What we know:
Layout: H1 3-27, H2 29-43, H3 45-49, E1 56-65, E2 80-86, E3 98-99, H4 101-104, H5 122-134
Antiparallel strand pairs: 1-2, 2-3
Bound molecules: zinc ion.
The site of zinc ion has 7 residues, from helix 4.
Amino acid sequence: MSKYEANVDMARRRQAQREASALLRQTNPAHRLRLRMQDMLLKHAWIREELPWKTHTPILYPEKVEHECSSCVVTRHGGFKMWWKRNPRPDQDDNELYKCHKCYFTGPEAMPEGYEDIKEPITRALKARKIELDGPNSIPQKKKQGRPRRPS
Ligand SMILES: [Zn+2]
């Protein structure tokens, strides 16, 4: 195979991959929820820190960290910025166990307690549920960016 043919072949394979993952997003709600939640978890501290996550808690590191996922038992080369850390269980001493997002987030049951039936748009639905469960001031305001306020 010539270099040109190899490049064309690679481009075709990439295109096929893109189409496959687009199809997966469209047809598999659990997959879409996982991607949406990953996005939200990376962006919003209150979603990581203030929702009643069940068996594991999302941990966001400033840099990628390599842990061994307790489900796929693969130490990903380069690691991830976000991991799911098993909540302490007093009867067992294996608390340092992690799951990658793909293994932890398999569907709505991975959502926090009381958030399992959230529908899209996810951002709005999460906020609405948080307010419903914890009251109108339960979502921390985003810090305003820009000019510091002048003392009046
Ligand atoms: Zn995994």
